[in-house]
Amino acid sequence: MAGRRVVVFPTSVELGPVLAHLVTSRAEQAVNSRGRFTLGLSGGSLVTMLAKELLAVPGLDCSKWVVGFCDERVVPFDNPDSTYGLYKSHLFSKINIPDDAILAIDFSLGVSECAEDYSGKLRKAFPDDDIPVFDLLLLGMGPDGHTCSLFPEHPLLEESQKIVAPISDSPKPPPERVTMTFPVVNAARCATFVSTGGSKAPVLKEVLEGREGPPFPAARVHPTNGELLWLIDEPAAAALTMKVERLGSGAKL
Ligand SMILES: O=C(O)[C@H](O)[C@@H](O)[C@H](O)[C@H](O)COP(=O)(O)O
């Protein structure tokens, strides 16, 4: 692990531009060294924050981006629960990313087949990797400590063979989802959590500072050969006693 950075911003207003800079600078580095930038997206409040901030970047060029989903709800794209659907309307329709560079699920399949199909899409997009190595995964964390669709105490936390797994009993609706597993999450070059708001404070303390008993799913994210960044705001950081970095909107990570 290249190390963990916990960076606290006054509010999400200052965090947003730094997130956009992180994405575009990692994209530039990746395109320069490997010819493309592979990005994994999560849902929740990240969708609108990321879309707003990326669309404000002058001359944003996504022509060499390949985008996947850290998890996805198995619902039609026009269902408001579809993470792809939200990104399509907020972001993909407004940037120059080729359609075939977006690795989306086939929601018409049953949840198990859908996971197999999405796994095949990842394998095809990463033909040289035993486990797909994304340049950047953007992750969220629920107030229960889940990330992707990896929920506390769920057997999927121990999945070590599959790169993508189906889940049909998600405690958070909708119940049917597909999710990247920890082997993929922890193979990333950089995993970045974005977590804001006071509702995250209690769980964030346990995730970042440790707890008795089994670690929360979000605490199990620690890329083997990559970086781990936590971008949070003061309300989310309220219960932390650890040393953190405090930065503002002009920061570059
Ligand atoms: O699939 C889901 O149910 C959500 O996408 C979820 O996993 C989300 O990423 C976290 O709950 C953090 O969401 P917020 O950043 O909006 O709190």
UniProtKB/TrEMBL annotation:
Domain (Glucosamine/galactosamine-6-phosphate isomerase): residue spans on this chain: 14-230
Pathway the protein takes part in: Carbohydrate degradation; pentose phosphate pathway; D-ribulose 5-phosphate from D-glucose 6-phosphate (oxidative stage): step 2/3
EC number annotated for this UniProt entry: 3.1.1.31
Record has Hydrolase as a keyword: yes
Top EC class for this record: hydrolase
Catalytic reaction annotation: 6-phospho-D-glucono-1,5-lactone + H2O = 6-phospho-D-gluconate + H(+)
GO biological process: carbohydrate metabolic process; pentose-phosphate shunt
Known function: Hydrolysis of 6-phosphogluconolactone to 6-phosphogluconate.
Family (UniProt): Belongs to the glucosamine/galactosamine-6-phosphate isomerase family. 6-phosphogluconolactonase subfamily.
Protein name: 6-phosphogluconolactonase
